[in-house]
Predict the structure.
Amino acid sequence: MNKILSAALLGVLSAAPAYAGGTHGGGHGGGMEVGKPGEAAHVNREVAVTMKETDDGEMLFEPSSFSFAKGETVKFVITNAGELEHEFVLDTAERNVHHKAMMAKMEMEHDDPNSVRLDPGASGEVVWTFSNTGTFEFACLIPGHYESGMHGPVAVLDGSDGTFTKGTVKKVDPKSGKVTIIHEELVDLEMPAMTMVFRVADDAMLDQLKAGDAIEFVAERIKGKLTLTALK
């Protein structure tokens, strides 16, 4: 009898990490690879996110992508404007795929600081610090929703070695991948305050910019072109 109980207990313990690996643990310095829970008092930027469905059956997030600077703490204000339950989960693409497969086998509801699940018409928040550079993912892992379009990239760029400059967006041109900014002095580049056209290091930045926005950014010369490498 004791041998049977011991074997059963061993089986439970050996299986436990597979479930814990969904959205918990497994990162740098005790956090997750995508970062760590942020503190509301240290929020650098607030971002509005909408979850909804379209008439043709597509499910989506608006915006469809994000770009942040390493070390930035972001408050995501998420609204479910659809008619179905949806969730917002931050993680690596690989871990989201793994967790999505688990959810397809059993009914699971996240209760983690990197996620929020919302009924139709409800709103919620996720405060997150992006402590590592790389490309991550936000997604809805409810069965069928990811496949219907509910996922997008999160680019975290290293702006730690540059000086953030204040500016106002004058124009965004998604087709050319450029943005026109009225900016203060670019200290690192020894350039005076003026209005200039910049490329972006990641196209996800363009989804976060619109004419009239007050921003802070890091600009570098990449292959001879003035390029935004970090944004907040």
